[in-house]
Amino acid sequence: xxxxxxxxGPLHLAAAIDLPGVYRADSYVDLAxxxxxxxxxxxxxxxxxxxxxxxxLAVAARIAPGTGRIGLVPTVTTTHTEPFHVQAxxxxxxxxxxxRAGWQVDVSTTEAEARLFGRRRAALREELWHEAxxxxxxxxxxxxxxxxxxxxxxVATGRFIDRDRLHYVDFEGSAFSVRGPSIVPRPPQGHPVRxxxxxxxxARETAARHADVALVRTSSAARAGAARAxxxxxxxxxxxxxxxxxxxxxxxxxxxxGECAAEPGHGGGPLPTAEGPAYRGGPVDLxxxxxxxxxxxxxxxxxxxxxxxxxxxxxxxxxxVALLQHRGLFRTFYPGSTxxxxxxxxxxxxxxxxxxxxxx
Length: 360
Fold this sequence. Notes:
Blueprint: E1 12-16, H1 25-37, E2 42-45, H2 56-63, E3 71-77, H3 83-96, E4 102-106, H4 111-117, H5 125-143, E5 151-154, E6 159-161, E7 171-172, E8 177-178, E9 193-197, H6 201-210, E10 213-216, H7 221-237, E11 246-254, E12 278-280, H8 283-295, E13 301-306, H9 309-326, H10 339-343, H11 351-359
Parallel strand pairs: 1-2, 1-13, 2-3, 3-4, 4-9, 9-10, 10-11, 11-12, 11-13
Antiparallel strand pairs: 5-6, 7-8
């Protein structure tokens, strides 16, 4: 990707491949392969305890062997799930996908969802997002609880692990505690990519502290830019390098109108709806919108949710993405093999190994 003339970092693109009511794995694999053909950074699979549907993380594990490069980011809620199990499952996805896993962190807010489990009552969003941040924190610690060379597989002595290279995390959170270490070796990416929808104010601190990619749902380029600036200021306040946080504009897209906008002027930009910002128009107009927002430096990329999954994803890849590639604004191939490489993010150092080196 050349990104000629923008003066900005590389453009990143991701898409949702949700198929409500569909349980056949092949349907999800087909959509992921279509997105991979367009060299998109990653695809997401939504999930919620509030509606029926297949488990997103399990579907992502099924997609992994059918694809070769695209990142796979299922939603996994932190409210009624065990943090130890969540991190182990995401680490496993990173292994089976050879370093292409991500995790969209989310919370469950309703009493109906709480009754499914019977362990606790529903809580305020502020409390749930604080807990989600703790889960994201302990997940990173557990991923680091194995040094990269902890596996020795010494057949002669029967030793599989060097115990000196395993670490207890001894984490005490507001609602849980975890000792560790993990049962899964350190993932290929070190830390699978964490994605947080930072649109709601309650989620922004968690995104700024822990997310590699933050999603912002807004129909205004100016507001997207303001949200990006706010998140990066917060990230700096929390001791992070703000350049390690990618901020994507999240839009629903309806490309059913071909090259003509369904409503006068609608093709020029997204409109606010009850479900969130929605773009309705043609693939060419969408390419113009993406180009304009990115060149203005408002966002690092876009997460697009097709209104009609197959139709709109095809028009997105064959129309919008192809045009962006032709203009040199988006890559035509994957230069690396992991999701972190797609996003231009370094593999994190192991915090326990680094500490051991300092102490020694």
